[in-house]
Design brief:
The chain is mainly alpha-helical. It has one domain (39-466): Orthogonal Bundle (Cytochrome p450), CATH 1.10.630. The protein has 19 helices and nine strands. The chain has helices at 2-13, 18-41, 49-58, 74-78, 93-106, 109-112, 116-137, 142-159, 165-182, 192-198, 200-225, 238-243, 250-254, 266-297, 299-313, 322-325, 329-341, 394-397, 451-462; strands at residues 44-45, 246-247, 262-263, 347-351, 354-360, 363-369, 378-379, 382-383, 389-393. Strands 1-9-4 form a three-stranded mixed β-sheet. Strands 2-3 form a two-stranded antiparallel sheet. The protein has a two-stranded antiparallel ribbon with strand order 5-6. A hairpin with a 2-residue loop joins β7 (378-379) and β8. α14 packs across α15 (299-313) and α15 packs antiparallel against α17 (329-341). The structure holds protoporphyrin IX containing FE.
């Protein structure tokens, strides 16, 4: 702090001309870019399936493969890595508490059943929208319609059924803007205090987007907070489950201080709802788009999906009930094949070590712990250094000739009885006997907690291909 004041006074005494300041700024930017590109060059890329399984699933006992590299998630960036959501929280008590809450309070099968009416409404809305488009113009913008239906469903699960359509659209637009701006946010993952000055315009844009999210979400959050009596049988929304959740501040516990459990702040609630809406919608839509692109290229596959649905529910039935989804084996095979060939998350990243963010005197320090021997990565006879980023490219791993016949071909039949994909599990830990054949939802402790609900939503919206 003292140092900053001295420099500040010095600047006031003799402010350098603007041109000189610009040149200095450009030099700092160049140095930072060099810094980042050096860091990137150290990435280790794992392309061998057995090694991926060893590190992600069997290894990681000491926490070595349980962290992602410092994140560029909006909440973490804006709070200088203090506020976290599930995807960005370091492996530890906070991550455990918020992840367990999502998995057991919202995604547990007994809870998911309670959202069936919301899913039915979303499907009916989607079918009506597609039919309307088909009759009025002969062309249906199916991806847009599915996005609106899925985002609306996620918003209902997050805040309840009563959110008006205009606000849901505004939330979806704000999410799109945020996702677009995330691409350039990795510059804030390191040295936030400095990068925030250097990339001022980007920073201000992020602050504005976050403010917009707060304006949209906080009234809904407060309305739920004020609602004490929920009719029995009504599903609790995601935000309801967060109000009374007590969490430990990882920053305090890491510095050895007493860390009393506390409720989540409004800022943290907004960040978690934003993650729920973004993670719950965008990868699923990307998956649907790759399926639809393949259906256009392979009309015989779309015809087979239609025939299967007609055979299961009858040609005259309007929509598929959830009790029939399990019978649609070919539809499931089409989804699995699209997820194998075009995983929506291109690569998993892990920080090769356990990194604890510690705080003292208002400054963040990084402390690293040693990696346990089982998790060592040796490259050309030398151990990779702690802190290295390790990448697991999902598409490459899932197109291995040793696991799949003609791995680059779109062939849903491989997931039917007798095919090499029959019985392949999406959970790499189970049923794969030391093997990962595909992992579109990741693997190990940081695997996607939304896999079950995502597959349910994909199957449900996939039944609309009969219409489009
Ligand atoms: C087709 C849909 C989806 C796909 C392909 C997908 C894929 C993924 C992948 C690859 C990861 C990284 C896993 C790892 O690093 O091992 C991930 C993480 C995550 N996903 Fe999903 N996901 C989908 C849907 C969902 C849904 C519906 C939610 C629910 C809101 C969700 C919430 C999350 C969260 C919170 C994480 C971070 C987990 C952690 O760090 O502990 N995802 N997802």
């Amino acid at each position: 702090m003292t140092l900053l004041l001295v420099v500040g006074r010095g600047l006031l005494r003799r402010a350098p001309p603007i041109k000189e300041m610009r040149a200095r700024l450009a030099a700092v930017k160049w140095a930072l870019q060099k810094c980042f590109s050096t860091a990137l060059r150290q990435d280790v890329v794992i392309t061998d399936r057995a090694t991926a399984h060893r590190l992600l699933v069997r290894g990681g006992g000491g926490g070595a493969f349980c962290n992602r590299p410092p994140t560029s998630a909006a909440s973490s960036v804006l709070s200088r890595q203090r506020h976290h959501n599930i995807g960005s929280a370091p492996y530890g008590p906070l991550w455990r508490a918020i992840r367990r809450n999502l998995v057991s309070e919202v995604f547990h099968p007994s809870r998911l059943r309670l959202y069936a009416p919301a899913r039915r409404r979303a499907l009916r809305g989607l079918l009506a929208d597609l039919r309307e488009q088909c009759t009025s113009s002969n062309v249906a913008l199916a991806a847009e319609s599915m996005h609106a239906a899925l985002f609306g469903l996620s918003a209902a699960m997050c805040f309840g059924d009563g959110v008006d359509a205009g606000r849901v659209r505004a939330m979806a637009d704000a999410m799109e803007d945020l996702i677009r701006s995330l691409v350039g946010l990795s510059v804030f993952a390191a040295l936030p205090a400095l990068t925030e000055l250097v990339y001022r315009k980007k920073w201000n844009k992020l602050v504005a987007l976050r403010r917009q999210q707060e304006e949209l979400y906080l009234p809904l959050i407060n309305a739920r907070r004020g609602q004490h009596h929920r009719p029995s049988g009504e599903a609790p929304t995601y935000v309801d489950t967060l109000f009374d959740l007590l969490v430990v501040d990882d920053n305090c516990s890491a510095s050895g201080g007493n860390s009393p459990k506390q409720r989540l702040t409004d800022g943290e609630l907004v960040g978690l709802c934003s993650e729920f809406l973004g993670a719950g919608t965008e990868p699923a839509i990307a998956a649907m788009q790759s399926v639809m692109a393949n259906l256009v290229k392979h009309p015989e596959v779309q015809e087979a999906v239609r025939r299967e649905i007609d055979a299961v529910i009858g040609e005259d039935a309007e929509e598929v009930g959830e009790e029939d989804l399990g019978k649609l084996e070919y539809l499931n095979a089409v989804l699995m094949e699209a997820l194998r060939l075009h995983p929506t998350v291109p690569s998993l990243s892990r920080q090769y070590d356990r990194v604890v963010i510690n705080q003292a005197h208002g400054l963040n320090f990084l402390f690293t712990r040693k990696v346990i021997p089982e998790d060592h990565i040796v490259l050309d006879g030398r151990r990779a250094s702690a802190g290295t980023t390790v990448q697991f490219p999902l598409e490459r791993l899932a197109r291995d000739k040793a696991a799949w016949a003609d791995p680059d071909e779109f062939r849903p039949e491989r997931f039917l009885a007798g095919g090499e994909g029959e019985g392949v599990s999406l959970v790499a830990a189970a049923g794969s006997a030391g093997e990962i054949k595909m992992m579109p939802f990741g693997a190990g402790r940081r695997m996607c907690p939304g896999m079950g609900v995502a597959m349910l939503h994909l199957r449900t919206s996939g039944t609309s291909w009969r219409t489009s």
